[in-house]
Amino acid sequence: MKRLILILALLATPVLAVQPDEMLADPALEARARAISRDIRCPVCQGETIDDSNAPISRDLRLIIRERLVAGDSDAEVVEFIVSRYGEGVLFNPPAEGANLVLWLAGPALLLIGIGVAVAANRRRVVPETTLSAAEESRLQEILKE
Amino acid sequence: MIVELGHFTLILALMVALVQSTLPLWGAERNNAGLMALAAPAAVLQLGLVATSFAALTWAFVVSDFSLAVVVSNSHTLKPILYKVSGVWGNHEGSLLLWVLILATYGAAVALFGGGLPARLKARVLAVQGMIGVAFLLFLLLTSNPFWRLEFPPLDGQDLNPLLQDPGLAFHPPFLYLGYVGLSMAFSFAVAALIEGRVDAAWARWVRPWTLAAWVFLTIGIALGSWWAYYELGWGGFWFWDPVENASFMPWLLAAALLHSAIVVEKRESLKAWTILLAIMAFGFSLIGTFIVRSGVITSVHAFANDPERGVFILMILGFFTGGALILFALRAGVMEARGVFGLVSRESAIVANNILLSVACFVVFIGTIWPLVGTLLLKRDLSVGEPFFNAAFSPFMVALALLLPIGAMLAWKRGDAGRSLRTLVPALLLALALGALGYAMQTGRTALGPVGLALGAWVALGALTDLWLRTGRGAMAGRFARLLRLPRADWGKATAHLGLGVTIFAVSAMLAWKIEDIRVVQVGETFPLGAYEVRLDKVEEVEGPNYTSTMGWMTVTRDGAPVAVLSPEKRIYPVAQMPTTEAAIDYGFLRDIYLVLGDRQASGGWAVRSYIEPFANWLWAGCIIMALGGLLSLSDRRYRVAAGARKPAARLAGQVPAE
Fold first, then answer.
1. Where a domain ends, among B514, B549, B572?
2. Residues B61 and B4 reside in one and the same domain
3. Quick one: which of A61, B254, B495, B570 has the fewest CB in 10 Å?
4. Inter-chain CB proximity A94 and B304 less than 8 Å
5. CA-based Rg of chain A, rounded to a whole angstrom?
6. ipTM value of the model?
7. CA B539, CA B556: separation in Å to the nearest integer?
8. Domain A2-90: which CATH class?
9. Are residues B349 and B267 in the same domain?
């Protein structure tokens, strides 16, 4: 239980994640830094971005991002830099390549299948109405004659 | 003694549930009226026993009986009485007992108010409901017994997680559970219908109110949770795409699909097999949700209590019920032959489109939620999926849904005319586009999200109003207004719920697009600009609360010198739980919330302050409330009262459970 409380204490207060003293003076660079840090998972707290997390390592990562940006790296290079050190698990937005294609394409694929099945089922349902069996046909003729 | 009584009645409830799940089923098979009649009293008795058990646990919390392990871990003598009571379900064991209590309540509601049901169907429904009861009572007693005594009781408890000591969260789990478990009703009816081999309009008329009630509760529960996250976590957001949030969102999406497809079964005797499948899947996703929350297999910030052994047990329950029901479905679905046929352009087809989009959206949320697990188990890779993925992969389906909704809702049954529906919607379309353009012109940034969301939300909302107005027919204005008031409640419910969806769509995009954030160090006495406002930090002082100490800031918000509000954001420390929390101070407004968070004292002497302008935040909760209201209106429609008498049990549930 103590451990749980400790974990909760670490996890549950994503407050004041980005501290004023971390922020860059240049608003354009700072905005890029914020955008990057919103897509990076805090390596020790699973469910949070480093932008929301107040774990020390998240602060370090936020500072690294800003350092790289100030040094003139592009956004992609900064992300590359972090992934090369902490692994692809820190990416909250898995790139649509390799096995991750399944993740990205599952929804559209299911949509197409769904539409296909629905249209096919609709066709199947419509057919019996238009064709009458021989018995019904003769009955219809009888009614029409009367 | 009272605790032992609660424990004992819980075991008795299991025995009763065993009887309820077997004998009536056999009776229905052998056409034995006596055995079938056993189901109703068993369901009522089960409720009585579980309620006694729940009351006993509540009593233990209220009097702080620290010989119980759960009470020690989750309560404290100094805690306010409201949170002593809400502490009953603020933990794994107690929340499962609440789960079982609600399950039994639904069962008893069918037993008491299901007089109009055919005896055989009623017996089978209650038997399936009984089986779910057996599974969860076993789970409760074997892995998560709340009545576990301690040999050496401590003098005081370890307190409830302070984040959970909040009125919003006190009632969030009960509503969610009412929703989750409400879907068990749809499931029981679906399985009973499969055993019976018959689905007709009367069946749908029985299933729909339960689904509707479950959906209303889920809507309220999710909105409460989101509101809590918004004001309690102090981060200015309202939705994480966290696994636990997704767990409640997936059943919501499927319940929304189910309550639409059940209309087609009721009115047109079509889509029967699909509706049955949806009912099974909707409850399946409730179980998956329970599994995700309770097993801790997918890491989450909500991981309050989890345990692999419990996860395996829930997985077994999930496998047995969804697997069993799906096998039954595969065997019997062919029997359910559709009677109504419909053209490709018709209300039925529009509802099929709604169902496809909602199901696919649910599937996207599902695969995104379990993808990290797939990565670990199958790909041997450490993968994360978060907000960017969900925003990109989920939203297109919602946009498509919103685009189609007003047109589809106005199509005629069987064979519609899309051109005619569109023509009547031209004013709504033009107005929505104009609003979008206005939003684009008025915003400061260059984001497309805000204007598009505004146009889309307005399109859905105005479309709903157009639909309602056209239902009054032709003729003089006065006559139409009179007819408007006499329209069936179901029509009002439909328009209201769709209107609520439009408002919600708009509010979500507005909050995401137009939020203003400011982070800075502020000295006491200093004023800083925030959007159109100025904020001054007047003072910071220490305050003692009942079971916490607080650092409280006093901040004055002005606009062009005129006072707007005095807000006091806090940082609290709960000494017993050794846990800090942040209480954001919010000035709620019609068009915007001003949201202030006090941070740490800086070395330079000032305080870190985070401030937000949250545009249209209240519209988000209002949108959810309007949606839920639409559901309630629909639920109160005359045909359910006359045909099924199902409104009463639902209303009774809403009033009864939190009171216990």
1. B514
2. yes
3. B570
4. no
5. 29
6. 0.81
7. 10
8. mainly alpha
9. yes
